[in-house]
Design a protein that fits this description.
With 87 residues, the chain is α+β, with helices and mostly antiparallel strands. The chain is built from four helices and three strands, in the order ααβααββ. The protein has a three-stranded antiparallel beta sheet, sandwiched between helices. Strand 2 and strand 3 form a beta hairpin. The chain starts with 5 loop residues before the first helix and ends with a strand.
Length: 87
């Protein structure tokens, strides 16, 4: 998990208002700094997202994988990975 490549950073920049009312970054460098500060992670699958959230104390007991995928802090990157940004 982790290491934010250009695909992740560009996707986060374009979709950051999914989680925030206003933009928190305006370029790739700011996006990377923000994600590092938030301790965001990149997961390879929804199952890995679920495991990560459970390990970090999130109450996702009644959530299906579809519910997890639709959570505002989960960004579904077009290449099949997931960026999880907890604030």
């Amino acid at each position: 998990m982790n290491q934010f490549d250009e695909v992740c950073l560009k996707y986060f920049l374009k979709h950051q208002t999914q989680l925030f009312r206003e933009e928190v970054a305006s370029n790739l460098e700011e996006a990377e700094e923000f994600l590092e500060d938030c301790l965001a992670v990149v997961c390879e699958s929804l199952e890995e997202v679920r495991d990560y959230l459970e390990e970090n104390g999130a109450d996702i007991t009644d959530m299906s994988l579809k519910d997890i995928e639709e959570a505002s802090e989960v960004f579904a990157i077009p290449d099949g990975r997931y960026l999880v940004v907890e604030v």
